[in-house]
Amino acid sequence: MKTIAIFTDIHGNHPALQAVLQDISKKQIEHIYCLGDVVGIGPDSNQVLEQLTTRSDVSFVMGNHDLAVIAAARNEPAPVGHHNERQHHEWLAKRIEPKYIEVMRDWSMSLTTSTLDNELLFCHYHLDPNKWFAPIDKLPTTEALEQIYSKTNYKLVCFGHHHIVHHFQSDTRVYFNPGSLGCYNKPYARYGIVTISEKGITAEVQEVPYNNVDFLKSYEALQVPDREFILKIFHGGQYL
User: Full-prediction pTM beyond 0.85?
Assistant: First the structure.
């Protein structure tokens, strides 16, 4: 049996990440998979990157905001879909230490591994034939997911990007998105625990309470670009 932790879409929220890591430390977790959008939206990029990249038990995949911040830091064109957010990503890129930009550049678009003869896929979101993120399916179903992965041998597909929880199971595989760790309309940080055993694969969402008041107030204190929109859309307007 193997038990792993899954989290995604931290979005520069360090207190939420700390709460999750503290909770993970109390459990028998063998490895952590971080599924992208580590940075972007929230202002705590350096703290988040320092805490995660100094650990030996975390594997990373690339998120769309990670790519956008890297592009802004390197003065490269914005990735598809991020041209209107360029000012925000440039602001973040100026705050991130250059060494972390180089670390992020090494992240891959997906990771696969095998556990107990089960092939597992970890990605930020489903990739199209051009290896770019497919449009978000706002009303996902097991049938739609099966169409994407029907020609694969994956028994578990873990992803993020869409900030709500997805937990679907077909006859052949489990699809799991534990929801955004750092963006939620409640003062909770979310992550997932996945257990792979001879009996099959189980996935469960964990919600960890944390004090998010100072973090949300920091958007105004730091004059984060697009802060009113971000707080309303990604944090449910808490404490506005």
Answer: yes
